[in-house]
Design brief:
Helices cover 20% and strands 30% of the residues. It is built from eight helices and 30 strands.
Length: 400
C-alpha cells in the first residue's frame, strides 16, 4: 500500500506507460480499509442514491413518514440485522472488518435475484448501493464483473508481462484488488501513489486499473504477496537480544500498517521470558527492528510461521563460540564477491542497501567476542534473505 516512498521499479513504469493515464489510481490501506467512527455504528454508507423496497422487491414510496429515498451524501442509514463474525471473507459475497481486522458479514435477503439489506419496518435497500458498514468500515465484494475498454496487457502476480492481452469489450470477473507495492514491494517515487491492479478470478494474472469499466462500486478483497500486519498499540522496537532500541523514534505508532518478513521468538531479559516478534521489512527505509506480535492483527497476505521456538530463543542468549559462527562465516565467504555481479549492480537501491547492511551486520558479529548465538543466527538469516531478495527481483525483471 502507498507509503510515499522514493523509488519505483522500471517494470512498473513500463506497465504504466501503456496504461490510460486518466485512470491510474491508488490502492492503500486507508482507501481499502477506512477506520470505523463511533457515530457510524449500526449504519450503512451509500455509494449511490438509493430507493427502499418491500419484501417482494417492490419500490416503496414512503418510509417512516418520509419519502423512501436516500441520497448518497446524506447521514448513514440504520440497518436492522446483526453483523455476524466470519473467518474467511472469500466465502461471502459481501463482508467487512473492524479496526483489528476481524471479519464480519451483514445478512442480506435475496429478492428476485438481487441482494438487499433490511433497514427495518419491512423496508430493504439494495446492497449494490452500499459501500460502507458501521459508518466508515469498507464493504468488500469477493468478486465483480468488468469489461475491458482496450487491449489490456496481462501480468503475473510479480508484474511480469505474460505476453497476453484482454480484448476490447472482453468481459471478465475480478476477485482481488492490490497495488504494485503489494505485488513486488515497489517504492513509489516522488510522493506518487501506488498503482492499482486487479486479479482475474481463477488465475494469478493481474491487469492495471484503467483498462476496465467496472460494474461494481464496492472494493474487492485485498491481496498481497507479503504479510501485512496492523499495529493495534504503540509498539517499541527491540533488537535481537530482546532489548528496547533507544531513541525518540524507535517505535511504531498505533494503527500503522506494516509489511513484515520474519516471525521469531526472542528472549526478553527484562521480562524473563521469550516472546513472539515480527521483524520490520528489511527493504523499508523506516526504523528497523522487532516489535511484539501480541500487539498486532493479521490483515492479509501470506501468513508467517515462527522460525524458532521459545525454548530455542532462551538457549540462544548465550555468547556464541567459534563453532556457532561457522555457518555465518561460510555465508559471508560465499557471497564475498556478490557485490560485483550484475544482480547487485543493476539491483533495486533498497535491496542493495539491505545487502550492504546484512554484510556489515555479519562482519560485526564475526568480529565480536560477546555476540550472542541469537545475533549470529539473525545475521546469517539477514544475509541469506538479502541475497534472495536481489535474486528474486532480477528474475522478475527478466523472466516471463
Amino acid at each position: 500500500m502507498s507509503k510515499n516512498r522514493k523509488f519505483i521499479f522500471e517494470l512498473t513504469a513500463a506497465i504504466l506507460a501503456i496504461t490510460p493515464a486518466v485512470s491510474i489510481a491508488a490502492v492503500n490501506a486507508t482507501s481499502v480499509a477506512a477506520k470505523a467512527v463511533n457515530n457510524g455504528q449500526g449504519k450503512l454508507r451509500l455509494i449511490h442514491n438509493a430507493y427502499l423496497y418491500n419484501k417482494k422487491g417492490q419500490r416503496l414510496w414512503s418510509y417512516q413518514g418520509q419519502k423512501a429515498f436516500f441520497r448518497k451524501n446524506t447521514a448513514p442509514i440504520k440497518f436492522a440485522d446483526k453483523a455476524k463474525p466470519i473467518t474467511d471473507p472469500t466465502n461471502y459475497k459481501y463482508s467487512f472488518h473492524d479496526d483489528k481486522w476481524n471479519w464480519f458479514y451483514l445478512p442480506w435477503k435475496t429478492i428476485e435475484g438481487k441482494k438487499y439489506y433490511s433497514v427495518g419496518h419491512g423496508a430493504y435497500i439494495k446492497v449494490a448501493n452500499v459501500d460502507g458498514i458501521n459508518g466508515q468500515q469498507t464493504l468488500y465484494k469477493n468478486s465483480g464483473s468488468a469489461t475491458a475498454i482496450g487491449k489490456a496487457p496481462i501480468t503475473n502476480q510479480y508484474l511480469q508481462l505474460t505476453g497476453k492481452y484482454l480484448k476490447k469489450g472482453q468481459k471478465i470477473i475480478l476477485d482481488r484488488e492490490t497495488s504494485d507495492e503489494d505485488l513486488i514491494e515497489t517504492i513509489t517515487s516522488g510522493g506518487n501513489s501506488a498503482t492499482t491492479f486487479y486479479r482475474i478470478k481463477g488465475t494469478n494474472n493481474f491487469v492495471a486499473d484503467g483498462w476496465f469499466k467496472l460494474k461494481f462500486g464496492q472494493a474487492l478483497l485485498p491481496y498481497s504477496n507479503y504479510p501485512q500486519i496492523n499495529i493495534n498499540v504503540n509498539s517499541d522496537l527491540y533488537d535481537i537480544n530482546g532489548n528496547k532500541i533507544p531513541g525518540e523514534y524507535q517505535f511504531i505508532g498505533k494503527d500503522h500498517e506494516n509489511h513484515v518478513d520474519e516471525l521469531i521468538y526472542i528472549w526478553v531479559p527484562s521480562e524473563h521470558r521469550a516472546e513472539l516478534f515480527y521483524r520490520t521489512k528489511l527493504t523499508d527505509p523506516a526504523p528497523q527492528g522487532f516489535f511484539k506480535a501480541s500487539g498486532t492483527s493479521y490483515m492479509y497476505g501470506i501468513k508467517l510461521q515462527p522460525v524458532n521456538t521459545a525454548e530455542e530463543a532462551q538457549a540462544d542468549i548465550r555468547t556464541a563460540t567459534a563453532a556457532d559462527k561457522e555457518e555465518l562465516t561460510k555465508a559471508l565467504n560465499k557471497y564475498s564477491l556478490f557485490k560485483d555481479t550484475p544482480v547487485y549492480i543493476k539491483g533495486d537501491i533498497y535491496a542493495k542497501q539491505q545487502y550492504d547492511n546484512a554484510v556489515s551486520e555479519a562482519t560485526t558479529a564475526l568480529n565480536s567476542n560477546t555476540v550472542s548465538v541469537a545475533a549470529v543466527k539473525q545475521a546469517t538469516w539477514s544475509l541469506e534473505k538479502a541475497v534472495q531478495r536481489l535474486n528474486e527481483l532480477a528474475n522478475r525483471l527478466t523472466e516471463k
